[in-house]
Design goal:
With about 325 residues, the chain is of the alpha/beta class. The protein has two domains: about 210 residues, Vaccinia Virus protein VP39 (Rossmann fold), CATH 3.40.50.150; about 100 residues, Inorganic pyrophosphatase (Inorganic Pyrophosphatase, Alpha-Beta Complex). It contains seven helices and 16 strands. The strands form two sheets. Strands 1, 2, 3, 4, 5, 6, 7, 8, 9 and 10 form a ten-stranded mixed β-sheet that branches. A five-stranded mixed beta barrel has the order 11-12-13-15-14. The longest helix is centred in the first third of the chain and has 14 residues. The radius of gyration is 22 Å and the shape is elongated. The two termini are about 40 Å apart.
Length: about 325
């Protein structure tokens, strides 16, 4: 599998990349009408689709490999007065929970890999979509000029690495109808169409794409925290009550926040906890796990620990952790 490479957005000046694609307006209306809320903009680029879907009321999460692109989106958010989660990350390894999203919009993105990579991406897409969750995406067609004329460095039977220009060094996967149907074998395909563009935005050449709308076929498995809730745990407080977030000075911890000794979470670090029932800054803790806050648009769960052993209502817990969790999309499990 070839390594992923981000677009050089800093040197792409065309205003067209700031304007949402026409399909995005359709899917904003379609998905809202179907009651879908949690949306992943997979390969957000400079942020044009994230901004649109956010304006339509979706709970948006945006991810892109380009640090420049994500930075541009964050600045766009500030200008708009909006706030949703933005992540620098690789689509082959999505840093999100299982069953996190109702829908995924990915425009001219997923094709930037090789044959092994696209299979990994489709597996990740299937994992993070809810049962029945829908994706709209496209892949390059083998009828495109670059593939027919073999323009670039051939990596495998389906992949060419472009040389020169805005996409220098970026792999491009091409497929035919049989290939895209095989990639969608774990989905119900609703729409599959082939589109040829006589002049693409970056190249004065014929472009050809497969566009697909498909629903994830899977069973829902509810997160099971029965082996966690009720446990007595101990650890250290590294962000005490009243302290500021190390990277976000305006965020003040309204409860003690720390980690459990010797227990590791999905991000590979020690398991984080919110400590309730202690009204003074602490250095260490021992307490009972009374709930788990499950983040959807992240891979970290947060354990809710009671220092005094008393239970708290869902609303009390939600209010106590809102200072930080308002920036994420999650759910409390008891």
């Amino acid at each position: 599998m070839v390594g992923s490479k981000a677009w050089d957005w800093e040197n792409i000046k065309s205003e067209s990349w700031l304007k949402p694609s026409e399909e995005s307006f359709y899917y904003a209306e379609k998905w809202r009408g179907e009651g879908r809320e949690r949306l992943l903009d997979l390969g957000c680029g400079l942020g044009r689709h994230s901004i649109l879907f956010d304006s339509k009321g979706f709970k948006v999460t945006a991810i892109d490999l380009s640090e420049y692109g994500v930075k541009n989106l964050r600045e766009w958010q500030k200008r708009n007065g909006t706030d949703f989660r933005t992540v620098v990350g690789d689509m082959k390894h999505l840093p999100f929970a299982d069953n996190a999203f109702d829908c995924i919009y990915s425009y001219h993105v997923m094709t930037h890999t090789d044959t092994e990579g696209i299979r990994q991406i489709m597996s990740e897409v299937h994992r993070v979509l809810k049962p029945g969750g829908e994706i709209y995406f496209d892949l390059l067609s083998k009828r495109a000029w670059h593939f027919v004329e073999q323009q670039g460095e051939r990596i495998d039977d389906n992949t060419i690495r472009f040389v020169g220009g805005a996409e220098d060094g970026i792999p491009h996967f091409f497929t035919d109808e049989a290939g895209i149907r095989d990639l969608l074998r774990d989905f119900d395909i609703n729409v599959l169409r082939h589109v040829e563009t006589l002049k693409t935005p970056l190249y004065n050449a014929t472009g050809a794409h497969w566009f697909a709308e498909a629903d994830a076929v899977k069973d829902y498995v509810k997160p099971d925290y029965s082996d966690i809730i009720g446990r007595t745990v101990s650890g250290r407080i590294d962000r005490p009550l009243g302290s500021a977030h190390p990277r976000i000075p305006d965020m003040i911890y309204t409860v003690n926040y720390g980690y459990v000794d010797g227990v590791f979470a999905g991000d590979g670090a020690e398991q984080d906890i919110y400590l309730l029932g202690e009204d003074k800054p602490a250095e260490t803790f021992t307490g009972k796990v009374i709930a788990v806050w499950h983040r959807y648009n992240d891979i970290e769960d947060k354990w809710i620990v009671s220092a005094d052993g008393k239970d708290r209502s869902d609303s009390e817990i939600a209010e106590a952790i809102a200072f930080q969790e308002k920036y994420f999309d999650g759910e409390l499990f008891r």
